Amino acid sequence: MNLVETLNQRYMKPELPTMNVGDTVRVTVRVKEGNRERNQAFEGTIIAKKHGGINETITVRRISYNVGCEKVFPVHSPSIVSVETVRRGKVRRAKLYYLRDRVGKNAKVKERI
Q: Which of 2, 44, 78, 90 pairs with 33 at a CA distance of 20 to 30 A?
């Protein structure tokens, strides 16, 4: 059991910012297209955090061109270049799945001061 824990600690990223549900984050992902590599940013609201440790994932939702788009990012994946918190959200739930049914200003999360 100790061997598994030491392997997990070895591959976890130590420099992650504090992320909570409701925060707006900018996730930079390394995208490979053919033989070229580039970094692509995805900015949106965290609507769910799941699992823990090396298996931790965040679900980020954004609306572009009036279409909602959600992506699930493994936080400790080597393809994730960086995660930065843009603004902090004030929420009282662990999962914000109700934002899927909301449109416009109703889909916003209040900012924590």
A: 44
